[in-house]
Specification:
With 96 residues, the protein is an alpha+beta fold. The chain has helices at residues 17-32, 61-67, 71-80, and strands at residues 4-12, 37-44, 51-58, 84-93. The chain is globular.
Length: 96
């Protein structure tokens, strides 16, 4: 089975970028330890610091489903709920 790549774009509300960044960084270490996590990278836009991107590679959709049920993920969701202007998540399979 092919791995799943997730590209997630998060846009912080004005004045919230540093708080959102802090919460996103808390996800990195525990997520990288999860079963099925192959790659979990966080980026911040150089021109607009309100924009963050996650680039993730997972062994399967089942691993992603387990990820969103973890305490650290649920804590992140609750923490940034009022600080995000936009969140777009793409779950993709490599075709080449």
């Amino acid at each position: 089975m092919a791995s799943i790549t997730v590209v997630a774009k998060l846009v912080a509300k004005k004045g919230c970028a540093e708080s959102v960044k802090s919460e996103l960084q808390k996800l990195i270490a525990p997520t990288r330890q999860e079963e099925g996590c192959i790659e979990y990278l966080l980026f911040q836009d150089n021109e607009d610091p309100d924009i963050f991107m996650f680039y993730e590679t997972w062994k399967s959709f089942a691993c992603i489903e387990k990820h969103v049920e973890t305490d650290h993920y649920k804590n992140y969701v609750a923490s940034v709920a009022t600080m995000l202007k936009e969140k777009i998540v793409h779950k993709m399979t490599r075709i080449d």
